[in-house]
Amino acid sequence: MPGIRTRTAARILIDVGDGSGFATSSHLAAYAGLAAATRSSGSTIRGEHPCRRGSKLLKRAFYLAAFASLSQPESRAYYDRKRREGKHHVAALIALARRHIDVLFTMLRDGTFYQPPTPATQRLGEHRRGTFSRAGAAMAAWFRTKLTRRYLAPDTRPFWRTSHISPDCCS
Prior knowledge:
This protein is mainly α. The protein has helices spanning about 5-15, 25-30, 55-70, 75-85, 90-110, 120-125, 135-150, 160; strands spanning about 35-40, 45-50.
């Protein structure tokens, strides 16, 4: 992977192992302290912030690997895209480190080596304004049908299914 050499790989191997202890890449990111945390109190939600929990050594290893990988074109393109979205330098590096965690988890799960993205795979995953990947278009269609059924379609269910009244009381 770009930015990961012997010492960083050793640190990741010590902390992560074969990755079997993590169900998803989000669990691995939370363990590393690179998952976003929502700060809320009561009904007030203050948005997503960097998490202060997790393994500080693993977080540092991924952060420095992300910084070192900026010389690679695919990492630089992702970093520049995050900067154009309005993120500061550190936030863009943390987003790049999180992306490295996703790639690493996929490599550990599938037992494959790192392969740089090809132009075809880069185009498939991009979500630009007005264009979606095939998966994004399918998900948007699914949400459209769900919302239509739930909110716009007339409710044909019996009234006891839509309220807290049991059907036994109405017979």
